[in-house]
Structure formats: structure tokens, C-alpha cells
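Forwarding these from the shared drive since the link keeps breaking.
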Amino acid sequence: MVLDIILGVLVVLLAIAYIYQLRVTKKQSEESADLLRDYQRRLDEQQRLFDDYQRLEKSFDNVGKGYEKALLAFDKIEEEKQMLTQVKEALLKQVQDLKDANAQLLAELQQAKGQTS
């Protein structure tokens, strides 16, 4: 009889321990799942940040290339401007030379008319 009571108490204690162990295991499982979700969320956030960084880096590179092209185009335009300025000066000199030659020819023509009259 005492043995039955001890055995009954022991069975009840084991049942309580088993139930407690199940609760602890369930709680640990839920905590593990929460930690895993938090970890996955942080990984996703880091991936988004990394993707944003790569887009910014690509954008920065594109801006740098565009700036470099703009500088090269500006240099080319500046060279063309200098060349056109030189051509303009040469043409102006030729025009002035032609005007001088025309004036001289007109003067000679006037003299020739004056001598023949």
C-alpha cells in the first residue's frame, strides 16, 4: 500500500516534470523561431542596404563618367573655339589686305585717269 502511494506520487511527479519539460521545450522552440525571424529580417535588411550601396556606387560611377565626358567635350569645344578664332583673325587680316590692295588699286586708277585726262 505504501509502495502504491509512493509509486503514485512518483508517477504524478514524473507527469508534472514531463508537462513542465514540454512547456519549456515549446517556449524554447518559440524563442528560437523568434530569433530566427529576427535574424532573417536583419539579413534581409542588410541585403537591401548592400543593394542600395551597389546602386549608389554604380550611380556615382556613372556620374563620374558623365563628368569626365563633359570635361573632354568642353576641352574639345575650347580647342575648336581657339581654332575658329585663329581662322577668323586670318580672314580678317586677308580682308584688310584686300581692302588695302583695293584702295591702292583705286588710287593708282585715279592717278592713271588723272594722267590720261
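-- next protein --
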Amino acid sequence: MEHVHIAHIEANMPGLEVLERCNCYKPGFGFTCEAQDVGLDSYIECLEKDSCRCPFSMSYADSHYCTSPARVYIAKEIEK
């Protein structure tokens, strides 16, 4: 992810203070996890093998979804 996007997100994204609990987020670097937009408004599908260890992971059926507002924003607005 481009440095400009990371700086913008870190400066403007509401709720970033909770990211310190997220193993997939590295300050100044961004998210290191794989995820994809699947058309849901507030969720994205987490593609990590150990997604159940993430505090932002939500399981439904045979899939795991990410509920991190910052990660959802990145997947939907930046990683298009």
C-alpha cells in the first residue's frame, strides 16, 4: 500500500485506536493480512488461515469476515 494512503488513513480514520489489538496492522506500514470485498456493506472476507485469532474476525458459515472499520475501508476504497 502506498505511503500516502497509510498516512491519510492513520490521520483520518475513526476508531484507529483499537488497531493496537490487531495483529495484522503495523503502524506506518498498514495491514499485512489478505482480505477481499465480497459486496457486504460493513464486512470483508478474511483470507488468512489463522483468522480466528484476530479480535476483528467474525465467523459465519464456513467463512471468516473482518469487522475492522479501517480494514474494511481500505479494501473497499483503496484496494479496488
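The mean pLDDT is 80. The chain is about 25% helix and 20% strand.

- D.
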